[in-house]
């Protein structure tokens, strides 16, 4: 049985060392390659998703997560490891991340990982973080565009027993503490916490940089490490479909209230507006 | 607390798990709309199962929260009153909620898919070693098997998937605020209230809220009229036309997800599975194709008008009126006519 005793808080950051030694920040970015939404092809008969036709892209908010890590690296120094669980094709997305400035790339790939729900995905990624060892901050996207639950980041934090700061639009290091702004429904919450911590980053919260050719060439030369369930010492029935508590039962085609779909031509817009007014759908004298 | 990195454990005695838990999120001393909707759902499910709806809350001044929950028909209230409150902390909240789960062993656990709910649900589920179905739009129970039947839109457009958590307990789900109707108040209902005092410092550690900058976020869920734009607007400036029409109608601006992702308009305008779920009197969709993830967020609208160049677009069959035209022409035309009507000139007058 694998037992994770949690990361020892690294007293290594500038402010907390009395000797004045500065040990670089260690950051991990969790990135998933997702199909480009525009190119998804649905099999009309079997209702299955044909992902092979869709081009893989970095999950949009993961680009913002990487950018948030790169910004901290620029200011504070340190290194960034990108981890991704997915099929072999996801390697190209990791190379792209390294081309933007990540130092190391790890692809967690194994047939037995397929069809994992968020429990099994979080378990597998947490096992990978454990294998990496020391870290200060893990960055994740807020959610993925393909399954879109936003559960994996907090799930990994829970398995590791570390703090989390979700929905961030900004994060920085101040005197050894992580300070971040969280965007909530009713305002912005500014939070401060001590690493190790997992931070989830909102889409569009920063402008992801482009990759540099030189860095990409270096990345290809360096290569992407590949880890499977053996590397992670995870039993096969803990991962993928077998390790997933939820399952998809039946499918149904949504039944909808029948609507008339009455065609209206451009020239008929005045008549339409007239009708809406008569029906009370648009009210006159209802100021702004 | 460190969680052992192990697989999901199946409880030996699932029959020991009973009742329907609901997480009661509250802000400024009031239950949030999302948690009220979930409370309503938990009562509905509990009645079918002949069980109880149990509200769980963390924070300050929980007596008031319990009273509000009672007035909406909650049967049991379990509160963790934080005596050294230092702001929201996922770790501390998870700890308190989990202690209720371990003690009580609920069969079903509903959490609103608000930001706070989504922050917590996954940690609670992993601690309880169970699964979660996120963003469900329909809930039911298989009474003999006490199984929660949750439905969520599939990734591949067009179908709705049934998500089951057959062997693990509790069976957990989230639904976005706006997914269900608000529950009715219940007269003379008695709720059994237990509030325990807890301290968060031990769990929250160095995690502190330094500042909260209140900002009223656009609430589309209570809007009467919404005009939404999608990729068919062509570019960000297309939203000017959408805004003009919305203004002329005294309505709000909505959007599909890709235009939010492109940065044409902020996320607070997004309608759909991962945005807001709206039910206005009038919904106008311009340049939106009508993929299921958008439809689930607006199909409860009373009247729907769509504007699209493609007569085959899926949105058409969800519309009461379909304007088969370029949005850049139809939007200004609508605005112009509405302004005329509001100014007192009959719309159908010649000219
Ligand atoms: C997990 C998940 C969650 C999602 N959540 C959401 C969500 O919350 N909300 C959401 O909206 N989407 C969501 N989506 C995305 C959804 O699947 C669709 O991709 C999206 O709704 C499409 O947006 P659209 O209609 O603007 O773009 P498109 O599908 O590209 O449609 C554009 C439409 O504009 C029409 N058009 C083109 N030119 C013109 C013109 N000049 N005038 C008028 N019409 C024109 C086209 O005919 C077309 O019908 C989600 C997807 C996933 C996988
Ligand atoms: N397979 C994966 N590999 C690496 N990171 C992932 C994976 N799945 C999810 N994540 C991370 O978790 C975040 C939330 O994902 P999700 O819960 O699927 O919406 C993503 O933005 C990623 O940062």
Structure description:
The complex is a heterodimer of chains A (288) and B (351). Chain A has helices at residues 60-76, 91-100, 118-132, 152-160, 213-222, 269-278; strands at residues 26-30, 33-35, 41-42, 49-50, 56-58, 79-85, 104-108, 137-141, 163-174, 177-184, 187-193, 197-201, 225-227, 247-252, 262-264. With 288 residues, chain A is of the alpha/beta class. Chain A has a single domain, classed as 3-Layer(aba) Sandwich (Rossmann fold). A nine-stranded mixed β-sheet of chain A has the order 11-10-9-12-8-1-6-7-13, with helices on both faces. In chain A, a hairpin with a 2-residue loop joins β9 (163-174) and β10 (177-184). Chain B is an alpha/beta fold. Chain B has helices at 33-49, 62-71, 90-104, 115-128, 201-204, 238-249, 257-261, 292-295, 327-343, and strands spanning 20-23, 26-27, 30-31, 53-59, 76-82, 108-112, 132-133, 138-142, 147-153, 160-164, 171-175, 192-198, 208-214, 225-229, 252-255, 282-286, 303-307, 321-323. In chain B, α3 (90-104) packs across α4 (115-128) and α6 runs parallel beside α9 (327-343). Chain B is elongated and about 65 Å long. The N and C termini of chain B lie far apart (73 Å). At the A-B interface, α3, α4, β9, β10 and β11 of A face α3, α4, β7, β10 and β13 of B. β15 of chain A pairs parallel with β18 of chain B, so a sheet runs across the interface. Flavin-adenine dinucleotide sits between chains B (155, 230-232, 234, 256-259, 270-275, 287-289, 291, 293-294, 297, 307-310, 313, 326-328) and A (37, 145-146, 148).
Annotation keywords:
heterodimer, A: 288 residues, alpha/beta, Rossmann fold, two-stranded antiparallel sheet, 15 strands, globular, disordered N terminus, B: 351 residues, 2 domains, seven-stranded parallel beta sheet, 18 strands, binds flavin-adenine dinucleotide, binds adenosine monophosphate
């Amino acid at each position: 049985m694998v037992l994770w005793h949690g990361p020892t808080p690294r007293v290594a950051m500038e402010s907390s060392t009395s000797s004045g030694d500065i040990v670089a920040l260690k950051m991990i970015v969790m990135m998933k390659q997702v199909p480009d939404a525009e190119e998804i092809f649905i099999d009309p008969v079997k209702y299955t998703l044909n992902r092979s036709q869709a081009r893989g892209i970095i999950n949009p908010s993961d680009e913002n997560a990487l950018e948030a890590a790169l910004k901290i690296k620029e200011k504070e120094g340190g290194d960034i490891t990108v981890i991704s669980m997915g099929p072999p094709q996801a390697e190209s997305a990791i190379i792209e991340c390294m081309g933007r400035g990540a130092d190391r790339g790890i692809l967690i790939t194994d047939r037995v990982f397929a069809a994992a729900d968020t429990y099994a995905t979080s378990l597998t990624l947490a096992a990978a973080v454990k294998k990496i060892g020391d870290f200060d901050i893990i960055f994740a996207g807020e959610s993925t565009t393909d399954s879109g639950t936003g559960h994996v980041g907090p799930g990994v934090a829970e398995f590791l027993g570390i703090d989390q700061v979700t929905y961030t639009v900004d994060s920085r290091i101040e005197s050894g503490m992580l300070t971040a702004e969280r965007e909530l429904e009713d305002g912005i919450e500014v939070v401060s916490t001590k690493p190790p911590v997992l931070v989830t980053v909102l889409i569009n919260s920063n402008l992801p940089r482009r990759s540099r050719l030189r860095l990409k060439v270096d990345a290809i030369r360096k290569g992407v490490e590949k880890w499977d369930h053996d590397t992670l010492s995870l039993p096969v029935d803990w991962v993928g479909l077998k390790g997933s508590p939820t399952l998809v039962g039946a499918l149904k085609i949504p039944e909808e209230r029948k609507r008339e779909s009455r065609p209206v031509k451009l020239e008929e817009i005045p008549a339409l507006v007239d009708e809406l007014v008569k029906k009370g759908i648009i009210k006159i004298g209802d100021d702004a | 607390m460190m969680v052992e990195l192990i697989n999901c454990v199946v409880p030996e005695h699932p029959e020991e798990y009973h009742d329907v838990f609901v997480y009661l999120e509250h802000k400024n001393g009031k239950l949030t709309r999302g948690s009220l909707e979930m409370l309503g759902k938990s009562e509905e499910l509990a009645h079918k199962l002949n069980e109880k709806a149990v509200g769980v809350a963390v924070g300050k001044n929980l007596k008031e929260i319990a009273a509000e929950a009672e007035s909406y028909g909650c049967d049991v209230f379990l509160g963790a009153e934080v005596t050294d409150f230092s702001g929201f902390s996922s770790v501390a909240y998870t700890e308190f909620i989990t202690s209720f789960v371990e003690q009580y062993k609920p069969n079903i656990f509903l959490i609103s898919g608000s930001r706070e709910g989504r922050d917590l649900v996954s940690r609670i589920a992993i601690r309880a070693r169970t699964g979660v179905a996120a963003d469900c739009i329909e809930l039911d129970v298989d009474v003999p098997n006490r199984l929660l039947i949750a439905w969520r839109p599939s990734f591949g457009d067009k179908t709705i998937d049934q998500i089951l958590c057959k062997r693990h307990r509790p069976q957990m789900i989230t639904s976005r605020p706006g997914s269900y109707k608000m529950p009715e108040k219940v007269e003379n209902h008695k709720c059994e209230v237990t509030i325990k005092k807890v301290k968060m410092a031990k769990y929250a550690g160095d995690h502190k809220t330094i500042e909260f900058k209140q900002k009223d976020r656009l609430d589309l869920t209570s809007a009467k009229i919404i005009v939404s734009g999608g990729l068919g607007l062509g570019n960000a400036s297309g939203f000017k036309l959408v805004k003009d029409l919305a203004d002329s109608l005294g309505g709000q601006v909505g959007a599909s997800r890709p235009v939010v992702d492109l940065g044409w308009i902020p996320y607070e305008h997004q309608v759909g599975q991962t945005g807001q779920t709206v039910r206005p009197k009038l919904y106008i969709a311009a340049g939106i194709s009508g993929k299921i993830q958008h439809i689930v967020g607006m199909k409860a609208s009373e009247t729907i008008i769509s504007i699209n160049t493609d007569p085959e677009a899926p949105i058409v069959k969800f519309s009461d009126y379909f304007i088969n035209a370029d949005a850049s022409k139809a939007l200004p035309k609508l605005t112009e006519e509405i302004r005329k009507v509001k100014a007192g000139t009959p719309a159908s007058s010649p000219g």
